[in-house]
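lol forgot to send this yesterday, sorry. struct tokens for the thing we talked abt
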């Protein structure tokens, strides 16, 4: 069995009173990428699971964790994988999927034997993993760099020029509830997800990467009129409750992977906040 840490759900009333350390303990996931070890964070928000794996010296198997009470990990779950490192392989019940830098794989419910490896342990793959409960088996699908839907958002004038890439969304691959994509902030811009939004129907997790050394991203969370911030470093993730905004401003440009789960599969279903009404 793999190891895991549990994160419980908090109410907006409770979070109003959290100090810096409490906010970090509840929502921040430090050091997501683990070498030769799969260690999950199991969130009680929509039972969303997060892990990061860097296979260096050996192949790593996807194993169940105790709270699933399932004989194998994907018995009642689906899994999204985005490789932010060098080339690696994901072997799924005898079929090998090669994932290059920024390529992704969707694995549906029911797959039993899943094994991760790097092509070259000295230039390893870095697999970022999100998993959600599933009720139906959909086919496994690799999403290569040319399969993603790309949209340009924001502008240099408002310091939020960015490229959003949709990898695991229902117009690209059939899924039960998982949605994943990647957003890259253009040089000179700093803001992601501004204007901010909430979607009380879905929770979300952001994994910040390509944050230059000695730089940081200030991630904003909370109800739109009661915001808080969490300072984040490279390869750290943050859980966004369904009632919370999730937006960030970096001291340099950066990228992040967003993953969502909940009530519907409509990426554009967001309640946008007025910038000058944020508090
Ligand atoms: O920069 C953005 O805007 C985003 O990446 C927004 C996320 O995709 C999101 O929050 C989707 O709900
Ligand atoms: Zn969102």
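and heres what i got for the seq, position by position
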């Amino acid at each position: 069995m793999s190891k895991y840490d549990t994160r419980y759900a908090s109410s907006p009333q409770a979070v109003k009173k959290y100090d810096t350390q409490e906010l970090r303990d509840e929502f921040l996931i430090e050091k997501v990428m683990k070498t030769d070890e799969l260690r999950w964070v199991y969130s009680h928000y929509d039972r969303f699971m997060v892990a990061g794996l860097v296979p260096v010296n050996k192949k790593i198997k996807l194993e169940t964790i105790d709270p699933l009470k399932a004989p194998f990990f994907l018995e009642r779950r689906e899994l999204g994988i985005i490789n932010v490192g060098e080339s690696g392989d994901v072997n799924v019940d005898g079929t090998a999927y090669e994932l290059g830098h920024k390529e992704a794989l969707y694995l549906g419910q029911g797959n039993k034997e899943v094994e991760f490896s790097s092509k070259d342990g000295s230039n390893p793959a870095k697999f970022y993993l999100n998993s959600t409960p599933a009720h139906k088996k959909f086919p496994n699908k690799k999403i290569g760099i040319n399969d993603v839907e790309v949209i340009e958002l924001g502008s240099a004038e408002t310091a939020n020029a960015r490229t959003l890439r949709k990898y695991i969304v229902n117009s690209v691959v059939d899924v039960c509830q998982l949605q994943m994509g990647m957003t890259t902030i253009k040089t000179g811009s700093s803001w992601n997800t501004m204007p901010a939004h909430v979607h009380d129907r879905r929770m979300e997790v952001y994994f910040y990467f390509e944050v230059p050394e000695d730089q940081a991203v200030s991630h904003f969370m909370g109800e739109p009129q009661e915001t808080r911030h969490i300072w984040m470093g490279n390869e750290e993730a943050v859980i966004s409750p369904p009632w919370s905004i999730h937006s960030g401003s970096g001291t340099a440009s950066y990228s992040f992977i967003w993953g969502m789960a909940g009530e519907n599969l409509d990426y554009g279903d967001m309640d946008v906040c007025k910038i000058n009404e944020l508090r």
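Residues 107 and 140 are 5 Å apart (CA to CA). anyway ping me if u want another try
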